[in-house]
Amino acid sequence: MNNYRFLLFSILAIVLPVQSVDPSCKGVINTNEILRDEPKLVSSVLNGKRFIVGSGYDKINIVHVYGGTPYDMGYALGKLMSEDLKQLIPEYFTYLENKVEILIKTLPPLVAKWIAELGLKGALDLNYDITRIYTPPWYDEELRGLAAGSGVNYQDIRRLNLLPELIKAACTVLGAWGESTISKTTLLHLRSLDWDENAPIAKYATVTVYHPNGTYEGYVEHFQNYYKQKYSTSHTFANFGYLGLIGSIGAYNDVSVGLGQKVWITQEQDITTRLGNPWTYVLRDVVQFSDSIDTALTMLLNAKRTCSVHLGLGEYHRNTSSTSERTIDFLGIEYSAKEFNVFSWKDMYNTPNHPILKDVVYWDPYVQPSNNKCLGSLLVEHYGRLDPLTIIRNITSLLRTGNTLNLILDYAENAAYIAYSAPNDPQGPLEAFNRVHTRLDMAKLFTEPAPK
Fold this sequence. Notes:
This protein is of the alpha+beta class. Helix content is 35%, strand content 21%. Residues 4-20 have low confidence and may be disordered.
């Protein structure tokens, strides 16, 4: 009988999800296997290709666009995704309009006042009017191309792209390298999006890979006006997000510079402004035009900043000639109109709930400094053994972060691991952190040839 009980206990220990010993961690381990399928070509047009990876509720669009001009890239994206955009725009705005009364309670007083007086679309139009003089012209060019290619109203696409300026998300930022990882030689970068996992935009999960024309005259002529430095170069890069959103909530380029965001909640309301370059556009420009963390920091400092957000900024130099040279760097940044603070792992908050860990920069989904023990305890528990699978199985799922989008970049592997929420999946789970994650070979994506 004792042997039988021991066998039963052993089976249950293997089969049942295991909860972290820290009671502040409310999730369960994600036991799903990683999906490693190759993307399949679906269609191509002049200046664009559409691939799909995964199936059913785990399907992700991978869309390549090639310049020409920003208009050309937008037009190709619109052509390839026309039917989806025609469904997404009205569906998503109807969903948001039905939630306006709830949204207003969570927004800054000024934004809530705009929406109460002008409606959601009117508030987004006002935000456009006061930011457009600070916004590089290549965004409006791309949006007009996207509208023309898809047949969707230009104003509606423009409004969609300003939603992140009005509606903030919680999210988690993590950078781990060196002694904290299994390999000791990689940089792991987590960008978990905690937003609205039930929103219909989840059905339009899209990774957009931009192959811009670096000699485009608009970049050459106008870059200095917005970032106070001479234009140097443009990179192929990937935007991880949703169809129609051309700014960046998480992005990574072909020289392994990556950037992700979480909200920075502060009582100091005077550190933000509405008069500036929308933060998603600044983040995209940083990834498109930076070949080092120093260039990225200069751009972020010189930008006309608006909202208060935390950023995780990473770089990995895979072609250095000597192992003694610096190959990895990751910084946490507090970014706002009037404050700009940069943190290495040594400068992070050192509290009982947020211990300083060598080669680890992190912020959990809560107000900082966090009073929640979960993430700090998990990082201590898995220190020295971190890899993408460990982060997916034992950290984001237990912390319950990344409910809408969960992205882990492995810089040395040059790979992304990504999952999206699935509000329409009757079998569940709903949240991205509990679902199957898809591995994307970023080196292959960045070298995908243009259509003939």
